[in-house]
């Protein structure tokens, strides 16, 4: 018997890479483009891409309200880069017509690490289930996590100007990161999400 079916928001962005990782972990993966597709999955991945384009497509596809409700109801959800922007409760430097899914109590600055020419690769230091691990992290027009609420757990940080900066966070059934773990061969971030999907566990800070 396979693992729970996982949907990937397939409106725009790096869908194929996330699909390959989740399938390698044993999940049946569904490309979610309509509300009907959403009904067939137990969890969702929101990939990187262009957050304003994805935002507009969420509205035109009819997915915005049902997806927001499923997340509020506790559906395990993993957002990377643009996915983090969509999930955050507050966005800095966003567009007036940009929508939010209100999935995680964080203030995020869109393109906070800089535009395309400032893209970079580094190592992120893990915490919680990733404690003691060093993770490859690819940042492409990446959003910056400015602050998080008391119930948000920081699972990875990078050194930025001598300070630890959160780049992977979790609250309840939502996992979100500034970087692109799907663009490396390292599966540990997705393994954390897979465990969340199968256990259905709600996590808060200790």
CATH architecture: 3-Layer(aba) Sandwich
Largest sheet data: 9 strands, mixed
Into which percentage range does the β-strand content fall? 25-35%
CATH secondary-structure class:
Alpha Beta
Sequence of secondary-structure elements: EHEHEHHEHEEEEEEEEH
Counted by DSSP, the helix tally is 6
What's the arrangement of strands in the largest beta sheet? Answer: 2-1-3-4-12-11-10-7-8
How would you describe what is shown here?
The structure is a single chain. A hairpin with a 2-residue loop joins β10 and β11. The relative contact order is 0.17. The chain has helices at 15-24, 35-38, 51-61, 64-72, 82-87, 188-199; strands at residues 3-9, 27-32, 43-46, 77-80, 88-92, 104-109, 120-126, 134-139, 144-148, 153-160, 163-171, 174-177. The protein is built from six helices and twelve strands. The strands form two sheets. A nine-stranded mixed β-sheet has the order 2-1-3-4-12-11-10-7-8. With 206 residues, the protein is α/β, with parallel strands linked by helices.
Short description, anyone?
This protein is an alpha/beta fold and 206 residues long. It has 6 helices and 12 strands. It has helices at 15-24, 35-38, 51-61, 64-72, 82-87, 188-199; strands spanning 3-9, 27-32, 43-46, 77-80, 88-92, 104-109, 120-126, 134-139, 144-148, 153-160, 163-171, 174-177.
């Amino acid at each position: 018997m396979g693992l729970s079916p996982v949907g990937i928001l397939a409106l725009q962005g790096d869908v194929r890479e996330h699909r390959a990782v989740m399938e390698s972990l044993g999940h049946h993966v569904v490309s979610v483009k309509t509300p009907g597709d959403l009904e067939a999955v137990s969890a969702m991945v929101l990939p990187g891409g262009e957050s304003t384009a994805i935002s507009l497509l969420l509205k035109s596809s009819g997915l915005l309200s049902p997806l927001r409700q499923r997340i509020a109801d506790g559906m395990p959800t993993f957002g990377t880069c643009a996915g983090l922007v969509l999930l955050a409760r507050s966005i800095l430097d966003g567009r007036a017509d940009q929508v939010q899914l209100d999935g995680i109590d964080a203030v995020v600055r869109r393109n906070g690490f800089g535009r395309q020419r400032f893209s970079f690769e580094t190592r992120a230091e893990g915490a919680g289930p990733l404690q003691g691990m060093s993770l490859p992290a690819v940042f492409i027009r990446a959003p910056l996590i400015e602050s998080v609420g008391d119930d948000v757990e920081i699972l990875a940080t990078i050194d930025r100007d001598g300070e630890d900066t959160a780049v992977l966070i979790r609250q309840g059934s939502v996992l979100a990161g500034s970087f692109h773990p799907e663009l490396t061969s390292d599966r540990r971030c997705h393994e954390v999400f897979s465990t969340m999907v199968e256990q259905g566990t709600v996590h808060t800070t200790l």
